[in-house]
Amino acid sequence: MQFEPVIGLEIHVEMLTSSKMFCSCAVVDLPSAEPNSAVCPICAGHPGTLPVPNIKAIEYGYKVAAALGCTLATTSVFSRKNYFYPDLPKGYQITQYDEPIASNGKITLYTSQGYRDIRIRRVHLEEDTGKLTHATSANETYSLVDLNRAGVPLLEIVTEPDFHSAEEVRVYAEYLRALVRYLGVNSGDLEKGVMRIEPNISVRPVGQEELGTKVEIKNLNSFRILERGVDFEIKRHIALIESGGKVKQETVGWDEAKQETYSQRSKEDAHDYRYFPEPDIPPITVDREWLNGLYSSLPETPWEKAKRFVEQYQLQQQEAWQLAGDIDTCTFFEAVVKENPAVSIRTVFSWVTGELMALLSSRNASILNSPITAKGLADLLGTILDGTINHQTAKTLLVDMFDSGKTAKDIILAKNLGQVSDSTLINDLIATVLQENEPEVQSYQDGKVTVINFLFGQVMKKAQGKANPLVVRTELERQLNHGK
Ligand code: ADP
Ligand code: ZN
Ligand code: MG
Hints:
Layout: E1 3-14, H1 55-67, E2 71-72, E3 75-76, E4 78-82, E5 92-96, E6 102-111, E7 114-127, E8 131-137, E9 140-146, E10 153-159, H2 166-182, E11 195-205, E12 215-217, H3 223-242, E13 250-255, E14 260-266, E15 276-277, E16 284-285, H4 288-296, H5 302-313, H6 317-324, H7 327-339, H8 345-362, H9 374-385, H10 391-404, H11 408-415, H12 423-436, H13 438-445, H14 451-462, H15 469-482
Parallel strand pairs: 12-13
Antiparallel strand pairs: 1-10, 1-11, 2-6, 3-16, 4-5, 4-15, 6-7, 7-10, 8-9, 11-12, 13-14
Helix pairs in contact: 2-3, 5-6, 7-8, 7-9, 9-10, 12-14, 12-15, 13-14, 14-15
Bound molecules: adenosine-5'-diphosphate, zinc ion (ZN) and magnesium ion.
Adenosine-5'-diphosphate is lined by residues 6-10, 158-161, 200-202, 211-212, 214.
């Protein structure tokens, strides 16, 4: 029997506002901030305190939803989701239940299998919980509670079960990460837990309408683990069903050491959250006009950019996404193109995604804090184009530019790097090399034409890499054939 995987995604994205969702505590960087340093009676869940919604978080949430093509609601309602857990001192989480800010969106993915439409079911706002750290010392286990994260604005984006492979799921998560960075509402630092992905996975016999029993993997914060986890569950479900077993509806976690999932809780112990409208917060209403304004002020989305790069610059899909997947990289790329339109798109693409990226990562730098500006790179590429230096010299120069902060032109002048295109000079070099290598010249003339590569190398060596390779090759061929 053939099986079809069916997957739906829930993604939690923290909103990068300056203050929390319902109080004025700062949103701090979780790994670096002193634990419990950004906490007040409201986010610590003291009774009798009054939550006040953060307008910026609401705006951010609507922006993301608009970019996902959702219908934006003018009224949304916060509810209480009741459950007990040590990271939730109030005993309930304030979230949106039956009246979220947005619903019914759509996003089109580009995967190795072509285009895929994914429907977005809903987008809602809520508050994050605190963070627990489980520790052991002197044979005792205990948990540390950090409430810095409690009350941080969180956006939850839920899809319909429209994915059919681990790749599609990974691509969607990548799109979403790129989007929230474009919109400036999230840092995209997955390893810090600012975006957490929960895939719901089931399989069904091909052709069957009814969905299979789903298993949810909790809290994944890496694309690699997301893809592996989904693949693992798909294979596990199929093997289970083929051996006569049944999938049990449950929530699982990912064991990185064992590269497998483990059961966390089954459906039987699922909570009944007893949602009810939050009595301390009236329904949130916004103007339709303000919402329409959000739509029209949206920047180009990552997938729109990727599509434009394919059409405008004739890049491959994969290449276009390499740029569009990161707002800083594509802004830089387009700035270089604009600075020096004479340089080919291919050249700019390969320098930005190749040489520059490699240099930045080797120096632990990012494109934003790099001393190499778009104009700097454009000028450097210009000096290759006009024959001042060759490709190889330009590579070394890029490193020099990074380290010294100087422009390509200044370094070329200071180090006398300009390449020799003067053909009398090159002619002399070639003549010398031909004299010094008579046997090779002979074998060239006897028909072993590949010997020209050796001779070419000798000339370039004599010129200390500064000779214009095109001029050398043309001149070398001319002299060899002339000597015939
Ligand atoms: P729950 O109440 O358990 O959270 P929901 O119906 O709200 O379940 O769906 C949560 C997510 O799981 C959604 O993204 C939805 O598309 C997906 N989903 C629901 N049922 C299935 C299924 N049988 N197989 C795969 N995904 C599913
Ligand atoms: Zn607070
Ligand atoms: Mg769920």
